[in-house]
Amino acid sequence: MAKVQKTAMLRITQVKSIIGTPADQRGTVRALGLKRINDTVEQADTPVIRGMVFKVKHLLKVEEL
Q: What's the whole-model pTM score?
């Protein structure tokens, strides 16, 4: 039987508003699946997601699961 690797996850919460931020940052927050302050999503811990989080880290709170 093949071994199944458990994927690391990130819990991402929007803690600041996107009002007044550049359009590319607003798009990044939306692409992460966040719609409003205090929205929380769980995403797989991949280099793509890490890069998106890094771009808007001043608007988010990130926890590793």
A: 0.87
CATH topology of domain 9-64: Ribosomal Protein L30; Chain: A, (3.30.1390)
Cα atoms in the Cβ-side hemisphere of radius 13 Å centred on 33: 10
Quick check: 2 pLDDT over 70? Answer: no
Could you give phi then psi for residue 8, rounded to 5 degrees? -70, 145
Reading the block at residue 36, the tokens are 């409003």
Q: What is the DSSP string of 31-63?
A: HTT--STT-EEEEE--HHHHHHHHHTGGGEEEE
Amino acid found at 25: Q
The letter for the amino acid at 64 is E
Q: What is the pLDDT of residues 8-52, one digit of tens each?
A: 999 999 999 999 999 999 999 999 999 999 999 999 999 999 999
